[in-house]
Amino acid sequence: MTISNAIVIGAGIGGLAAAAALSRHGVAVTLVEQAPRISEVGAGLQISPNGMSVLRAMGLEAKLKERSAVRAQAVVLQDYKAGSQVARLDLMRGQAGHPYMFVHRADLIDILFGAAKRGNVSVELGESVQEVLPGDPPTLQMLQKTRRRAEVIIDASGIHSKTRAALNGDDAAQFSGQVAWRALVPNRFDHPPEAHVTMGPGRHLVSYPLRGGKLVNLVAVEERDSWAPEGWSIADDPANLRHAFAGFGGRAADMIAAVENCTLWGLHHHPVASVWQQNGVALLGDAAHPTLPFLAQGANMALEDAWVLAACLSKQPLAPALHRYQSIREARVRRVIKTAASNAARYHLRPGFQRTAAHLGLRVASTLAPGAMIGAFNWLYHHDVTAQ
């Protein structure tokens, strides 16, 4: 190993994965987190085969099964009026030796935290970063007026990363014109082990089961003109969700009616950072490349980043290792972000010729060439960073 110590900022999925991955290479890691405890709000994640390859390589796949993560069988596209099927992507065809899993976010955080603790990662909670100072060595200036130094500092603190701002200047984020409600409801609807995308005019609902099928995770996206703040834990009145999706029928309507608590998240476009690394500091996950949630790849990209960064640091001196990390990852995440951004338009077609023709094309392709439909995602799901 060419470095012996590191600081990781942020105890989310990317930060915990990076800390655990580095510890596997013998690095002494300090994980700094501003929250007083490591926890997570209730929400679901889709861990696709490319993300599962990292968790398997880290020896954590069995831990997911212990937490009753659900193995996904398909992604089903549905019409909003009665939930009739438009197309089905058979995920059992496209898993490349790794399963596609539906996971409760809190469970994955806990599993990664356990891996970090087993790697003797030192965790410092309630510690807020004031400033990141690249250099030799790089330095953290804490709000508590103390300073921390390490051979490398990895910032996985998300879209408000101070390191991102230090390396790239202010982030010119723009409201996407879309908001997303998140909710969990008991699975009283016999929801199968599938991700359902129920498509309506200017809006769509994603649903899938969690924790052995006991819960259903809901993400409801609506196009709107009025700005909404960015944040996963901003509470909203479920009546607003029901009003926005009043035209939906079938199982979707029943699930939305069952929502008792929900959060509202304003979706914003953030540019991919031009500079991910410099003078001993590096960005990881959303701090480098925030993405809209329409391809379910945010967590998967963070897992890939963590593995690649740790692998690069294990093989080369610091400066070339950080440069190689960005060169390996940047083109891939840009493609993921572009693909995710285009999905919303496909889901939100208004009634008319374009919607009719698009849904007919999906039905025909799903029936006549199901292998080709899922095969279009081989570039995404078959990518295994642990084999590179």
Looking at the overall shape, the CATH architecture of one domain is 3-Layer(bba) Sandwich
Number of strands: 20
The DSSP helix count reads: 12
Secondary-structure content class:
alpha+beta
Uncertain runs: none
Compose a concise summary of this entry:
The protein has helices spanning 13-24, 49-57, 61-66, 105-118, 162-168, 238-244, 250-257, 298-315, 318-347, 353-368, 370-375, 378-381; strands at residues 5-9, 28-33, 44-47, 70-71, 74-79, 85-90, 101-104, 122-125, 129-133, 139-142, 147-149, 152-155, 174-186, 194-200, 203-210, 215-223, 235-236, 262-269, 277-278, 281-283. A hairpin with a 5-residue loop joins β5 (74-79) and β6.
Question: What does this entry look like structurally?
Answer:
The structure is a single chain. 35% of the residues lie in helices and 27% in strands. It starts with a strand and ends in a 7-residue tail after the last helix. The mean pLDDT is 92. It contains twelve helices and 20 strands. It has a domain of 218 residues: FAD/NAD(P)-binding domain, CATH 3.50.50.60. Helix 1 runs parallel beside helix 8, helix 2 crosses helix 8 and helix 8 packs antiparallel against helix 9. The strands form four sheets. It has an eight-stranded mixed beta sheet with strand order 6-5-14-15-16-13-18-17. A six-stranded mixed beta sheet has the order 8-2-1-12-20-19, with helices on both faces. It has 388 residues and is α+β, with helices and mostly antiparallel strands.
